Predict the structure.
Amino acid sequence: MNEFELKWLAFEITPRCNLNCIHCRTNASMGLKDVLKYEDIISVIDEIAEEFKPVVVLTGGEPLLREDVFKIADHIKSKGMRVGLATNGTLVDRKLADKIKEHIDVVSLSIDGSTSKIHDNFRGVEGAFDKTLNAAKIFKEIGINFIINSSFTKRNQHDIENTYKLAKKIGAGAWYMFMIVPTGRGEKISEELISKEDYKEILKWHFYTELKENEIFVRPTCAPEYYALCDMEAKKNNINYERRNLKFSTGGAKGCIAGQKIAFIGYDGEVKPCSYFLRSAGNISDKGFLDIWHNSKIFKDMRDFKNYNKKCAACRYLNVCGGCRARADAYYGDYMAQDPYCFV
Ligand code: SF4
Ligand code: SF4
């Protein structure tokens, strides 16, 4: 089996969005127009299907704003791949939920706080919280399994535990805590980013929460040092901690698998190792996706672990962590540099 097999592809099918989130990587808004035509999307899916069968997550912007979203989903499924939908949920009514159930395999909803005050402030639109909760309620009623994704900055970090409890209460199958990486609108909020010290404390809280959690699947996302921290805490406190906690559902066992098992295609066709990456490795209108995946410098560098910065290359956790390359780039202009949030 190829060590670097594409298992998970996030495909941003539109830059349009009905919300105005402070952390948006796309700077999405309703004023923008779709760049990729249906044919462009289908053609890259067909090309990928020749070699890989990843889960393709349709994202945006708000992917449900695209009229052909379910047609795209059907095409992906016809190629033997599973389809995910990452939505803010605010447009979902019973009729749309029935369509989602018919065409989509995995759904994620974004909730960034346990109250409307916190979530709506983060999402930039009043009433968003109630609509997203309503979507979760409809999903539950008609039997759609869903994941909750929650993003945190200084603004809402006090509410992490309550948000996790809310995800459980509304019946999510999994809760993923995202550590924001500065990009898109997020760049302007770098002063709002959770401090390195708090980052470590939050990951510690997550580790002990995860140990007790047996109803839903939880994991911190874009926090590769978590996998080092789990090992350190387990050893320090003699905790019998199962290796399964080190695995991503995307099939990788490393903290960050950007460019190794996952990739991102932006609304403009730019291909990147992950959605937070600032640099593009190439555009699907110039090169084939597979050419970029196999031959671009950025993707090759992401797999060249020995050439990561000295601290990572010599680190005993390189194989389970590897640091966040997007964060290193955002801070130092060098994606092979030290992850500025490494606390090991
Ligand atoms: S490079 Fe950073 S932001 Fe991208 S997937 Fe890895 S940990 Fe997440
Ligand atoms: S040195 Fe690198 S691999 Fe080791 S814990 Fe820090 S970021 Fe992860």
